[in-house]
Amino acid sequence: MKVTSWTAAACLATVLGSAAALPAQAQGGKASWYGSGHRTANGERFNPNGLTAAHRSLPFGTRVRVTNRSNGRSVVVRINDRGPFVGGRVIDLARGSARAIGLGGVSYVSLSVVR
């Protein structure tokens, strides 16, 4: 029983440690923006002028630095929604976040998790 409990604890620590390390890696790709909606996937009222974003897999509340590769401008956003639901895109920014980095349509960005 002790060996099984210890093994289970070791496996859990390994899995959790690996999962925590993945989001810290830099990611990049296409970003777009959205400006309408009533509620986000985490239940908040959508604020189109907020510094928030939608990501497919990062946990709600994660803060991410988004850098527009075309002009070098960056903003820290909070993940509070799910998406994007268009192939080839890695993040959807609320209109306020997009304005902060000069993103007018679809643009290439770099993402990094802020601790």
UniProtKB/TrEMBL annotation:
MF terms from GO for this chain are:
lytic endotransglycosylase activity
Occurrences of domain RlpA-like protein double-psi beta-barrel (ranges): 27-103
Instruction: List GO BP terms, alphabetically.
Output: cell wall organization; peptidoglycan metabolic process
SUPFAM superfamilies, alphabetized: Barwin-like endoglucanases (SSF50685)
In terms of Pfam families, this protein maps to: DPBB_1
Tell me the domain of life: Bacteria
- Endpoints of the signal sequence: 1-26
Which EC numbers characterise this protein's activity in its record? Answer: 4.2.2.-
Alphabetic keyword roster: Cell wall biogenesis/degradation, Lipoprotein, Lyase, Signal
Q: Which InterPro entries match?
A: RlpA, RlpA-like_DPBB, RlpA-like_sf, RplA
HAMAP family with a match to the protein in the record: RlpA (MF_02071)
Family affiliation? Belongs to the RlpA family.
Q: What does this protein do?
A: Lytic transglycosylase with a strong preference for naked glycan strands that lack stem peptides.
Q: Report the protein name in the record.
A: Endolytic peptidoglycan transglycosylase RlpA
Per the UniProt record, the lineage of the source organism begins with: Bacteria, Pseudomonadati, Pseudomonadota, Alphaproteobacteria, Hyphomicrobiales
